Amino acid sequence: MNKRDLVLSLLDKESEPSGIPAGFFLHFDEAFHRGRPAVDKHMAYFRYTGMDFVKIQYEFSFPHLPQIQTPDDWARMPLYGKAFYQEQLDILAGLLQEAQREALVIMTVYSPFMCAGSSATKPLLNQHIREAPDKVKKGMEIITDSLMIFVKECIKLGIDGFYASTQGGEVDRFGGSPLFDECIKPYDLRLMEEMDRACIFNILHVCDFHSGYDDLTPFLDYPGHVVNVNPQLVSRSLSSKQLAQMFNRPFMGGLDRHGRLVDGSPEEIKQMVTTVLDDAPARFILGADCTLPHDINWDQIKTAIDTAHQYQR
């Protein structure tokens, strides 16, 4: 069984999964953000660590637009077309050619809200949404149209799926607020529903890079074959089994991106992974709650993945 079959076996509810896949992600140095060096670096990481799918990092953020100062300015948000994404699409084409016969290849996509935060600043975006949500929505529509161009071009190339990252429901942003349902969720869903329609393997990532969540309910109906979210909420911690049950799909995670995976000994990592797997749901991918530090020793990751592959329930 190759890595494609191993991961896809998680989605077949009529049979037992063939094993425990694993995948961890990190940003590579800037020298590996474009062209053949980016393809080679992704493949070197995939081969060395033994992870079970190729996840393409997205390094071409929406440019900062200093002219966005007031809510009215969002109506003049530029629409970035295919040319804006071409370098990322070239990386995808290279990795599909290199790896797709043996492993799923998925692309990172940041949500319209996250791209809007890059275009202005996150505090300014939050302020504008609170002051004049209808005006900000004009910019969100343009950003979503642009990202849809990218998503559809990836689909044309034959991608297997997407790692769809979203934010906005954190406790210090719009968690528990109607503004999340009005200004963030509809644009997330428009993109993710297209991914779900066209692809066989999508990961929903609820990102807590900036701050935490206390309620994951707004995300339960988001598409995605697998969910990846930090089980540590602001007021409580959930188990991987609880999260798999809540989202009614396989869960990916189990390890803290800042924990012993980064600086533990091989034996500590093996024991930590074994403990996680002992309590994991039947359909599970070993991973971290978000992107790992870029300077982590790849041997740390390889040890964790090898342990998952050798684990016997």
Count of separate structural domains: 1
Strand portion, in percent?
A: 5-15%
Structural class: alpha/beta
Query: Termini, distance in Å?
Result: 19 Å
What's the number of helices?
12
Biggest β-sheet: strands ordered side by side in the sheet: 1-2-3-4-5-6-7
Give the tally of β-strands: 7
* Percent range of helical residues: 40-55%
The largest pleated sheet is described as: 7 strands, parallel
Order of helices and strands: HHEHEHHHEHHEEHEHHEH
The mean pLDDT is 96
What do we call the CATH topology? TIM Barrel
The CATH first-level class comes to: Alpha Beta
CATH architecture: Alpha-Beta Barrel
**What would you call the shape?**
globular
Low-pLDDT residue intervals, each spanning 5 or more residues: none
Provide the gyration radius in Å. 19 Å
Give a structural overview.
This protein is an alpha/beta fold. It has helices at residues 3-8, 35-49, 82-99, 112-119, 122-131, 133-157, 178-183, 185-198, 240-247, 260-263, 266-278, 298-310, and strands at residues 53-56, 104-110, 161-166, 203-206, 226-229, 251-255, 284-288. 44% of the residues are buried. It has a single domain (3-310), classed as TIM Barrel. α2 packs across α3. Strands 1-2-3-4-5-6-7 form a seven-stranded parallel beta sheet.
